[in-house]
Design a protein that fits this description.
Layout lengths: L2 E5 L2 E2 L5 E5 L2 E5 L7 E9 L3 E11 L25 H20 L21 E7 L2 E5 L6 E3 L8 H11 L6 E6 L12 H14 L4 E7 L14 E8 L2 H8 L6 E5 L2 H9 L7 E5 L8 H10 L3 E6 L2 H11 L3 E9 L9 E8 L2
Parallel strand pairs: 4-6, 11-12, 11-14, 12-13, 14-15
Antiparallel strand pairs: 1-5, 2-3, 3-4, 5-6, 7-8, 7-10, 8-9, 15-17, 16-17
Helix pairs in contact: 1-7, 5-6
């Protein structure tokens, strides 16, 4: 493969640096905008190419020494070579760029990114894999495993679980290690940022509302924090185990439903007073399905909160929802420091 000299111009969503050779985009991992490098082309397509650093000729002032001995080989982290303040700048810029490009959103009310109080040691759970005596994570761009003794972005309690697992001969398979016991249902992996997100939602919804519909509610993490603002709360999720957890100690005003989110959303909304109804959606990375987007546009509740783990699908959905809603604020949150992942809070209000 040939070697080329490149200048990194930007960081793409996903974490790779972007350079250009004769107009063609070249993606190079573990680089920072402004750096001059020599790189070996490893894959070449008509529209783009991929490369690996051969020589870092001019370093960015934001480059730091990674804290993890497995960094660049492990497939988890993408940004350990970048100081944390600059990671936040990159992620905030990426959110704004993708919302404007994909969603065609203008006059975007972006607010400053909310950082994680801890940029290492923050994950309250991890999933490791065991195969032929190796226990760890998948290698970058591979399905082979790298043996991991300790994960620096995981909490100490999780690493103790990992050490305990590694002390035994375990069958091949997947093992989720947690900092504490509790229902085995989806929850955010960064406690402090999850609480900041919940506080944002609480602050954004006015009091004296009639109905909250929390779609993709999980175990009710957001809904249960809003009980004093609503006469009724309906949570919907496809995961019956999460719904069972939500029902534990539920008050009389709470109803939690396991089922098809689209169908149950229509049923919950059809007879309510839309002037005093708020909706929260926190979908998977694929975003809202077309039927759910249509339901929200057709029914148009007074307030809509959209929590996203994928800015690209968020951009697509907001582009469609803006026909009936005004976007009041967009706030990125760094739920996953050292990785390329981004969480985004969006607050919308129905057009008057």
């Amino acid at each position: 493969m040939r070697t080329v000299d490149l200048k990194i111009e930007d960081i793409a969503f996903g974490g790779k640096g972007v350079a250009r050779e004769n107009g063609k985009a070249v993606f190079i991992p573990f680089t920072i905008e402004g750096e001059l490098i020599s790189a070996k082309i490893t894959r070449e397509k008509k529209q783009f190419a991929e490369a690996e650093i051969v020589d870092l000729r001019e370093k960015s002032p934001h480059r730091v020494e990674p804290s993890c001995p497995y960094f660049s080989r492990c497939g988890g982290c993408a940004y350990q070579h970048i100081d944390y303040a600059h990671q936040l700048e990159i992620k905030s810029r990426q959110v704004g760029d993708v919302l404007r490009r994909i969603g065609k959103l203008k006059d975007l009310p972006m607010r400053p990114i909310i950082p994680s109080p801890r940029d290492y040691g923050y994950r309250n759970r991890v999933t490791v894999h065991a195969e032929n005596g190796v226990i760890g994570y998948f290698c970058r761009d591979s399905h082979s495993l790298i043996d991991i003794e300790r994960c620096p972005i995981a909490m100490d309690e999780v690493n103790r679980e990992l050490a305990e697992l590694r002390s035994h001969d375990v069958p091949d398979g997947h093992y989720t290690l947690r900092a504490r016991s509790g229902p085995r249902v989806f929850s955010q992996t960064n406690d402090a940022v999850a609480e900041a997100l919940r506080d944002l939602i609480v602050q954004s919804i006015p009091p004296n509302q009639e109905l909250l519909v929390d779609a993709f509610c999980g175990a009710g993490f957001f809904a249960k924090a809003l009980l004093d603002k609503f006469e009724r709360v309906i949570g919907i999720d496809w995961d019956r185990f999460a719904i069972a957890a939500a029902k534990e100690n539920a008050s009389a005003k709470e109803t939690y439903i396991a089922g098809d989110v689209t169908a149950e959303f229509y049923a919950a909304m059809k007879s309510c007073n839309l002037e005093k109804t708020s909706v929260i959606v926190d979908p998977p990375a694929t975003g809202l399905t077309a039927p759910i987007r249509k339901a929200i546009v057709d029914l148009a509740p007074a307030h809509l909160i959209y929590v996203s783990c994928n800015p690209a699908t968020l951009a697509r959905d907001l582009g469609e929802l803006q026909s009936r809603f005004q976007i009041e604020s967009v706030i990125p949150l760094d739920m996953f420091p050292q990785t390329a992942e981004i969480e985004v809070f969006s607050q919308l209000r129905r057009h008057s």
